[in-house]
């Protein structure tokens, strides 16, 4: 149902470097973009993610209660994505760990303050 999600940025080149690293760890690359917008994912595949300078020209702000969840392939990738986000200048919103039986996740913010998580849902 969801084709892609966009997050606002105030610095597209800086956001691009952050998401290039996250996407590479997840095995995908850029699937489009221009001087205002960049998207990562696989055309025709699962939902992609994009960063954009706001269309209205106003500063990008963080949505309170908004979060993008990135499905990892295993717990080790959850750990790597969290570490990569922090090494790329992101901030920790919750270290990797099991939140409830079968749900392992790590939470972080990108360089513009957008909240993301990396997770794996396993059969308990």
What does this structure look like?
- With 124 residues, the chain is α/β, with parallel strands linked by helices.
- The protein has one domain (4-52, 67-121): 2,3-Dihydroxybiphenyl 1,2-Dioxygenase, domain 1.
- It is 22% helix and 40% strand.
- It is built from two helices and eight strands; from the N terminus they run E-H-E-E-E-E-H-E-E-E.
- It has helices spanning 12-25, 75-87; strands spanning 4-8, 29-33, 37-41, 48-52, 67-71, 91-100, 103-109, 115-121.
- It has a four-stranded mixed sheet, covered by helices on one side.
- A hairpin with a 3-residue loop joins strand 2 and strand 3.
- Helix 1 (12-25) packs antiparallel against helix 2.
- The chain is globular and about 45 Å long.
- The protein starts with a strand and ends with a strand.
CATH architecture label name = Roll
- The number of distinct helices, counting runs of at least 4 residues, comes to 2
User: At the first level of CATH, what is the class?
Assistant: Alpha Beta
Structural class, by secondary structure, is: alpha/beta
Overall geometry comes to globular
Mean pLDDT: 95
DSSP E strands, number: 8
Percent helix, as a range, is 10-25%
Poorly predicted segments? none
* Element order: H for helix, E for strand: EHEEEEHEEE
Radius of gyration over all CA atoms, rounded: 14 Å
* Beta-strand proportion: 35-45%
Give me the CATH superfamily: 2,3-Dihydroxybiphenyl 1,2-Dioxygenase, domain 1
Largest sheet: 4 strands, mixed
Total separate domains: 1
Order of strands in the sheet with the most strands?
1-4-3-2
Distance between the termini: 26 Å
Instruction: Provide the CATH topology.
Output: 2,3-Dihydroxybiphenyl 1,2-Dioxygenase, domain 1
């Amino acid at each position: 149902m969801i084709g892609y999600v966009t997050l606002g940025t105030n610095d597209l080149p800086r956001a691009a470097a952050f998401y290039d690293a996250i996407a590479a760890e997840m095995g995908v690359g850029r699937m489009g973009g221009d001087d205002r917008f960049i998207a990562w994912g696989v055309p025709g595949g699962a939902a992609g993610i994009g960063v954009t300078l706001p269309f209205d020209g106003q500063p990008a702000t963080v949505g309170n209660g908004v979060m993008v969840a990135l499905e990892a392939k295993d717990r080790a990738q959850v750990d790597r994505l969290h570490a990569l986000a922090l090494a790329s200048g992101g901030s920790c919103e919750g270290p990797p760990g099991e939140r409830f039986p079968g749900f392992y996740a790590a939470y972080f913010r990108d360089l513009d303050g957008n909240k993301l998580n990396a997770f794996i849902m396993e059969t308990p």
